[in-house]
Amino acid sequence: MWIIYLLYLFYFAVAVTVALSLLLYTYQCELLYASGFPNGSRTVVARPSQFGLPDKEITLVTKDGYKIRSYVMIQRGEDLAVQSPTIVWFHGHRLPIAQVLFKKLGYNVVMLSYRGYGLSEGRPTEKGLKIDAQTMLEYIKQHPILKHTRLVAYGQSLGGAVAIHLVSQNEDKFNALIIENTFLSVPLLVPHIFPALRHLVYLVHQTWKSYKTIQYVKHVPILFLSSLKDELVPPGHMAKLYKIAQTSGTKVWRDFENGTHNDTCMQDGYFESIGEFVYDNVWDLS
After folding, report:
1. Could you tell me the pTM of the whole model?
2. Catalytic residue annotation
3. DSSP string for residues in 44-108
């Protein structure tokens, strides 16, 4: 009788494993990108004008045919705009941060809405987001003003992985890289977020292996912004990215003792850290 009982347990365990495997493989894009959160974010999108910012929205067409949206905020006056650094920002549509970057720090700001986010078409995938970022860069390099400016790729969380990849493939076009609360890779992140799936990471096809990609950044200065109470991405991931990075440019580490994953920008010294880094490594005051 106990043999039958053990067989039932075995079959149950197999069924659960198969079910979890199917869920992870099939729905990992929804889990990772969560582009429909919060509810209504695909239909109602805040505009820069609500924060006193230039409200120029552009629509770009990617090489695989998707229309993606972007906001372009350029400092008033061509001479000032050309002298000002341009932040190419991979973010969570956080316009209050853009307000500080544009108004207080004096940067041009380009905000990309990836495919499947906001009013952009498509469905987010690793391959697709990489295409979107490259499309944004190509637009900037053809823009009559922005093409003359110094570029800083700035990515938060997943956006950090996007920024690292873009710079690694186009390092000659960038003057600096800023990453914030970014993970080493998705397979290394899964056991922390979903402990029950830790033995199924081999099924992860959205990998974002930043620990490998960052090694291809050879000379661009990098600023690492890390919240030490990050509940989503273990702070050790950022520490390891800092250690792995072998750029000949400046490496700057800034951590925030009380910061969590989404409130780093509210910590004392956050914008000062960005301002000092850009002033020392990017801004052309000649």
Report:
1. 0.91
2. 157, 230, 261
3. ----GGGGT---EEEEEE-TTS-EEEEEEE--SSHHHHHHS-EEEEESS--HHHHHIIIIIS--E
